DNA sequence: GTCTATATACCGATAGAC
DNA sequence: GTCTATCGGTATATAGAC
């Protein structure tokens, strides 16, 4: 699957996501008209992600957010009850999105080598579309309170488990040579995270997400000794 | 080389580092007696790293640092002129240390496969000893001002270049099969960074730095098709 | 060299006009 | 639904006693 095909199929628009956020946070959001709320939420999240990814969520004051988004302080507080809640809303939505897209894309009946390629591509394509969101989530996890931190950790381990399962299945079927599927999944995940954490590096080198995906798949398949005597 | 041998040879003590910091920042440090300054600097840096790595540098107020270190606000400001300068002092020292240790350890006359293993082990062992420092540097880079950010980026690319050179040398000598040494160096670096960024994960799984080093070396050597028909 | 006390600014959050 | 004005609290940074 090409990145363009993925993008069209995933149909992840900021409006859809904000519509979900609106539905899930009716308790905290004082605005009742969905059309107004969704428009402003999209503005708030986009602006908050941009400012936070430049200098960190804590360093971004709500006055900064107010200025950059064009909404007043009072208006902002119609959409969340505290700055911490804004942080949690962003994090929660990112996690939901990851789980939904990753599990939807992977065909559990496919052969392990096909599943591996699909999982790698899906992960990279998703994080390419939602780069700001993933970068934010990666960098701000440690600023969350303990219960929210646990959710982040569980989410990380859940994604990793997808790869552990694929590697174990491939190992049983003797398609891969895997000595330690847990560590192998860890290093695979680190390569995938590098794509959105070090986005500036790949942009500077003019490496596209498809090139990176092809390279990573080739590198990992070589490490797992697929199709070799 | 084992981790224990490396630790003894590197002889990186907090006191030595703080002695260097003292020498380099005489302009900002009001204290004149070296013995006093070094002791307090070690306290300040250790405490700042601990608090920052728990909840971020921006979220750590100097009152927090004062309380946790046992030094008063006034005393703290005898060692730096602003909170931002404290951040820069920590970052600078981490970078210097990386460059010194990494270039000292690697024998440029060795065979590429030996150099690769040495570079991987040295990098992992160094980041194991200085884990807090590297984690801090990784997480707080984006909070620096532009000139300091550039230094961080240059440092990252410099470390990566070490691996690119090794891979290219191995490719020329036909010891490795490398299609794209730049991307290969990138993913190798991401695996090495994972060790100190996701330290909690490996601690929980009781993976030692030597086990991780062995695994990563094996994984990469397999990907580069060393010693295979 | 280290302390306490304080200056000044800005933070998150809210009340109330419109 | 959005605004401005303002609250109380806390931040960085400094002055001056000891």
What do you see in this structure?
With 229 residues, chain A is mainly alpha-helical. The first copy, chain A, has one domain (3-223): Tetracycline Repressor, domain 2 (Orthogonal Bundle). Helix content of chain A is 74%, strand content 0%. Chain A contains 12 helices and no strands. Chain A has helices spanning 3-10, 14-24, 34-55, 62-69, 73-76, 83-105, 112-129, 131-140, 146-172, 181-197, 199-204, 209-223. In chain A, helix 2 packs across helix 3 (34-55), helix 6 (83-105) runs parallel beside helix 9 (146-172) and helix 9 (146-172) packs across helix 10. Chain A is elongated. The two termini of chain A are 28 Å apart. The mean pLDDT of chain A is 94. The interface between A and B is large, with 43 and 43 residues. Chain A binds a DNA duplex (18 and 18 nucleotides) through helix 5.
